[in-house]
Amino acid sequence: MKKFTKIFFEQEPYKTYKSKFNIYGIYKPSQENGTDNPNNGVYKNTVLSTTFNSLSSDRYLLTEDNKAVRDLAAHAPYDAIYIMVNTDKYGGGGIYNLYATFAADNVWNEYIFLHEFGHCFAGLADEYYTSDVSYNDFYSKGIEPTEPNITALLDKNSIKWKEYLTPGIELPTPWKKNEYEIIDNDWMKERAPLIKKISSLIATNAPKESVKAAENEYYVKEQKHVDILDNFFKKNPSWGKVGAYEGAGYSSQGLYRPMIDCIMFSKGKKPYCKVCEEAIIRMIKFYTE
Ligand SMILES: [Zn+2]
């Protein structure tokens, strides 16, 4: 908890508003170590009954035991609940005004931690659109999403983040979307057999070292992919500009995000985009003023 408290306050806007937060940790030991991973037949008796494969998405980590969550949380005053899950498998979840979870030991733990808190605390939408999710057509066509960081509307004078638009920016904002999709698609193809390999090693009870080796191979390749994407974003002429970038909210077309990159869009160490940051600040002020 100390580690993630530090990470939290190193990130804007939490850094600036540090004095507005109190963080309490509540620890209750579980009967067993870990969490449920139904796709691999793993079931653990844990205090909050967290589980992967929530809503049939392997990396979606939630609990349906709301009573246990509230009973435990009731040991401290709180506005937001974060559940640290003792696992190194990639995953997490964040539901606005309910709670967030994250895999505390995964190599992407810092990113997941900040991403899911954005959902849970500020009601931010997922800005990504190329990953498989539990929801198809989550946002109805022709209806403006309620979340502050995605939009279906492109009118400069009424777009919900109009006060943050970079002066003179083109809407929709060109960002070499096709190039991004080729890079991302190549990685999706490359990673599929690696994921399959890890799953089958776990399913066949392979020695822990072989599972770890396969996982490491995966993470090294994934880190390389993240670096390539980071480079793509930073070299893009639209880097750092607030506009409306097509591709958001699990949809390749018709939904737009405010900046080319954001913690709500892609993995890695990076800031929230301007619009997400401002939405978080509004929520901090809502609770504290
Ligand atoms: Zn954002």
CATH architecture of the domain at 2-122: 3-Layer(aba) Sandwich
Using only CA atoms, what is the Rg?
19 Å
Class by helix and strand content? Answer: mainly alpha
Total E-strand runs: 5
Strand order of the largest sheet: 1-3-2
Q: Which fold does the CATH topology of the domain at 2-122 refer to?
A: Collagenase (Catalytic Domain)
Order of helices and strands: HHEEEHHHEEH
Stretches where pLDDT falls below 50 for ≥5 residues?
none
- Termini, distance in Å? 27 Å
The CATH C-level class name of the domain at 2-122: Alpha Beta
Overall geometric form: globular
Short description:
This protein has 289 residues and is mostly helical.
Task: Describe the 3D structure.
- This protein is mainly alpha-helical.
- Among the domains are: 2-122, 3-Layer(aba) Sandwich (Collagenase (Catalytic Domain)); 177-235.
- Helices cover 35% and strands 8% of the residues.
- The chain contains six helices and five strands, in the order ααβββαααββα.
- The chain has helices at 2-10, 66-73, 109-122, 177-203, 208-235, 274-288, and strands spanning 82-85, 92-95, 99-103, 245-248, 251-257.
- The strands form two sheets. The protein has a three-stranded mixed β-sheet with strand order 1-3-2, covered by helices on one side.
- Strand 2 (92-95) and strand 3 (99-103) form a beta hairpin.
- Helix 4 (177-203) runs antiparallel to helix 5 (208-235).
- Zinc ion is lined by residues 127, 149, 258, 262, 264, 272-273, 275-276.
